[in-house]
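Worked problem 6 (solution included).
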Amino acid sequence: MSFLSATLSRVKPSPTIAVTTKAAELKAAGRDVIGLGAGEPDFDTPQNIKDAAVAAIDAGKTKYTPVDGIPELKAAICAKLMRDNGLDYTPQQVSVGTGGKQILYNALMATLNPGDEVVIPAPYWVSYPDMVLLAGGEPVIAQASLQTNFKLTPDQLEEAITPKTKWLIFNSPSNPTGAGYSREELKALTDVLMRHPHVWVMTDDMYEHLAYDDFEFCTPAEVEPALYDRTLTCNGVSKAYAMTGWRIGYSAGPVELIAAMRKIQSQSTSNPCSVSQWAAVEALNGPQDFLPVNNETFVRRRDLVVSMLSEIDGMVCPVPEGAFYVYPSIAELIGKTTPAGTVVENDEAFATALLEEADVAVVFGAAFGLSPNFRVSYATSDEALKTACARIQAFCASLT
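Solution. The predicted structure is:
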């Protein structure tokens, strides 16, 4: 009998972390690798937020806090949800965790029983299915496509729901595609959910403020108020506020669910970092004027990457509405051979050869549940993006 839990056989390590680690190893060995795998802004955390953290340290706010967040941060989250989303929550309905991932994990652990199903639109963030499996549930993948701009249709959602369905995990703008659902598109999905009162909605709104051009972000409970009592609205400060390492995520939902999540957290990590919580208070309550400035940079980078990748014969690269990813299709490149003799059998082979032969690290599409594609993160410098895209162009041109 194995010493390790049988549950581990149901999951795999994060592919995005694996790509980032491999790229770092090659760089350490002296290779000029450009990493486009990590979903992390290259901006520094705004100074006022860093100052708030220093002030918290100087004030001795370095002790244990309540398990799922200090009152000041919960109040700031309630204010944010009302200000930005028109959602009215009390602090008793709010949970703060060590990053957005823990919030999602706590909710799944607190609610799933063996055989419970969770509908996950694909392409999806790599951790969704594995977190469901760890919690004892069964992921049900609802496949979107390039033809629908990687967005789930109402008919697909209807088909995926069964009497065993407990959750729909909804992410807009999306990691890995950057696709964002308009209010009309989201209303069509919530109309389906209204016909299935046993299905709850877990939103991942982490890229809320990274919305471009004419796209306007909206979240399910905002679009369909009748879903309020069975929605867990999840968010965090990692992406928009360039606070990935501070590890603060949060959610708001029914009191009973939040209490169950608190119980899970009390027996795992306990409270998030006290200093990070005070920094997050400042992030949510403080000036927000840097957000559109950062977004101008992201739009410029997006347009650069989409333009250069769209020049490649056999590659289709849709323009995303938000986040900082593009998700090109390489369907026409499958079956070709690299100069080193590697056959591009699938998108994983493409990504591996691109790293080994062209020193560009991307994440292959199968990791996100939709092939043949790959994900590029454009949350890095213009110079690095130009060089990387030129290398991708040369690599693809060399395929025979």
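Discussion: The mean pLDDT is 96.
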